[in-house]
Structure formats: C-alpha cells, structure tokens
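User: quick one, sequence for these tokens?
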C-alpha cells in the first residue's frame, strides 16, 4: 500500500499501539507472546477453609507521618540518677570568647553522651545567610544586629523542639556580660528558664594562639581577640560556672563540663 509523501500515517495497529511509553513486543508466528502479568497465587495457609488467596496484598509504607510534639519553653531538668549528667535531657549554653574552644568542646560533649544530644552553633546559623550576610566583624550595625537576633531566635526554636522530642541540645555563643543585645536575656527568652549557661574562659595567650590557627572570617585580629577576652572577664563574680581550660585538652574540658552541668542541675545558677 502506497502513501503520498507528507500524508499522515494510519494509526498503529495491534500490540504495542498505545500511548507513548508503552512497550511494544512484536508477535511472530509460533511465538506464544509474553506471559500473563497477574500476580502469582499465594499458598493456602494451614487450616484455611475458605478459597485460596489470589494475589499478594499491596505493599504498605513502613513509616508514615510522624507527629512531633511542639516545642515550648525549656523547664529545669530533673536531677540525674548517676554521676555526671547521665541520661538527663537538658539545654546548655556554652559561652566564651573567640578561640576558647566552644564549638570543639560542645561537639565532643554532645557526641560522648549516652542519650541523643544535638549541637547548634550560633555562628553556623548566622552564616546560613549567604547573599547579604552582615558580618559583625565589619561593623556592628542595624543589619548585623538584626541577623544576630534572627539567628539566636532560630537556635532557640531548634533547642525547644529538640528537647520537646527527647533530644538534648548544647548551643554555643560569645555572650557578653555587659551588652544586653548579645546578653543572656535573649537566650533565656527564646529557650526558657531551664537553659544552663556555662562560661569557657581560658587565658588570653591561649585564645590568641587558637585564633591564629583559624582561617577565613572566623579569624579575628589580635586586638579584637584581646578586646573580647577582656570583656568576657566580667563573667567572674556573675554566679555562672566558669571553666578555665588553658591547660585542659578537649576531652578533659568536656568531662569537666559534664560535672559542672550535673551540679548546675542540682543547684541552678542565678541568671
């Protein structure tokens, strides 16, 4: 049969003719064709008196929508039963100047606990802002303050939700004793009265050495490090527990932190 050039072809006929995506398998004389696609019959259970099952039931998802408890203000944790913080679910704020080792100690302490524990660094959350990031190192202004406040509120939201779902949380931030904007009040407002603050404050020579090993925007000038360290000295006499980790390695500092937190649970510091 001849078709004129440009004339539409007749619709396909026979097996395989259908919507795009269908599989076409040519039939040849003597070829039995593909086997039927009906599911195999299930074996009849022992003692079954009814008709045999014809096919397997449709598979079901092993997980569905998990309802998570909403986070609320964090209350004071219950005293631990054993030494250290044990299995207590608690929220911790680790305070210290740049180079104090806050993030390193917080990560190790969180990873060594026997119960689920999360670590949230305020600096990391601040740097979630890529385009338009207002770096406080280039000047503290309305933009950098607004982004700091937003990051702190985000960290508080995360901590409340972690604890509401049985996961402890340790946060770290360079909180100043003499600056309300970056003080403890905002953390208490966003997390709750159960937040346990601890100050990590090694000597100036130590923080200068650690700061020198940093790179990128996390590295500060020696003058800035000295200025921040000097203002952090105001925590002495505040009633908050202070760890001078000048001569401690990270593991020792994490162990001391756990002991201090256990005492803070039994007798919360006034703040």
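Assistant:
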């Amino acid at each position: 049969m001849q078709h004129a050039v440009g004339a539409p072809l007749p619709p396909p006929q026979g097996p395989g003719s259908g919507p795009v995506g269908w599989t076409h398998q040519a039939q040849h004389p003597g070829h039995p064709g593909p086997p039927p696609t009906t599911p195999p019959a299930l074996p009849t259970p022992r003692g079954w008196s009814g008709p045999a099952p014809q096919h397997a039931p449709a598979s079901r998802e092993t997980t569905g929508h998990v309802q998570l408890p909403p986070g609320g203000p964090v209350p004071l944790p219950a005293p631990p039963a054993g030494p250290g913080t044990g299995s207590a679910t608690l929220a911790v704020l680790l305070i210290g100047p740049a180079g104090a080792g806050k993030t390193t100690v917080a990560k190790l302490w969180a990873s060594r606990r026997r119960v689920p524990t999360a670590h949230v660094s305020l600096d990391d959350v601040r740097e979630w802002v890529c385009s338009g990031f207002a770096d406080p190192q280039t000047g503290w202004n309305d933009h950098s303050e607004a982004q700091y406040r937003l990051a702190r509120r985000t960290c508080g939201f995360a901590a409340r939700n972690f604890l509401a779902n049985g996961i402890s949380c340790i946060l770290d931030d360079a909180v100043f004793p003499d600056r309300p904007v970056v003080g403890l009040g905002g953390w208490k407002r966003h997390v709750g009265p159960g937040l346990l603050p601890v100050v990590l404050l090694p000597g100036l020579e130590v923080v200068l050495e650690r700061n020198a090993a940093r790179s990128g925007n996390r590295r500060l000038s020696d003058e800035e490090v000295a200025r921040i360290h000097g203002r952090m000295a105001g925590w002495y006499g505040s009633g908050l527990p202070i760890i001078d980790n000048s001569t401690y390695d990270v593991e020792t500092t994490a162990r001391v932190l756990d002991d201090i937190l256990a005492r803070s649970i039994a007798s919360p510091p006034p703040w």
